[in-house]
Amino acid sequence: EKARKPLVVSVGNRDGSWRWIPASLRGQQAVILTEGFPRVTVPDSGPATDARRFQVEVAMGQGGAATLQVAEQHSGLAGATWRQTFRRVPEAELDRLMRENYVGRVFPGAQVTSFEIANAAQREEPLQMSFTAEVPRFGRPTGSGVLVPNVFAVNLAQELAQRASRETTMGVGGRALEVVTRIEGVAAPERTVARLPTVALEGFGGSRYSREARVEGGVIVITRKLVVPETNVPASEYEAFARFCRAVTEAEMVEIPVRPAN
Questions:
Q1: pTM assigned to the model
Q2: CB 122 within 8 A of CB 112
Q3: CA angle 31, 34, 39 (to 5 degrees)
Q4: 82 or 45, greater pLDDT
Q5: In CA terms, which of 3, 94, 131, 147 is 20 to 30 Å from 113?
């Protein structure tokens, strides 16, 4: 009889899949509690296990206003964290909390017209959420058009690279993010894309970031991806890692110049 692969599960995360393994344990050696105490390696599925993914549809209006349709997918720990919040908040308060404290924080002044949590109870699945909102000050008007933000931007420089140097090793939590933003209702979208050159960055331990922009059927499509594995950055590698983090922040914080068609 062929030896069966061990089934690796974790306990203690009541809001996540029982198959989810904490990042700190992935790739580590484990002992099977059976005769001979054989050793196995805990499977390492990488940062994508806990990925956050956003699909954002932006319909530009006048003066920087926009209608947003957002679909979110939160896997692993990201989904479990949201489900813990849903479990702790009274059901009667949850919709208001998400509209005001979540969407209202991400997009100040937003008027949420719909909000849906598709599968809060299915903890074996990535969490699916979506909302539609009218955002009167989504973009910042300028003399020649409107500057709009990269939505769901990350600021690695603030999180991980505030020091010029370090004398000790720095622990870094894993993360994976993908944001696809489609902006419609824009005149001359090719001009916008021309001002958003492709960005491809690599950092310590397999960290990587990319940003690409293109035009599809008159719609601007911007795809941003970030992967940072859980790792320990030695003091000797910190300055290079910090440069990577600052370069990611620089790419993320760029405002996108558009000229609304209306």
A1: 0.91
A2: no
A3: 25
A4: 82
A5: 147
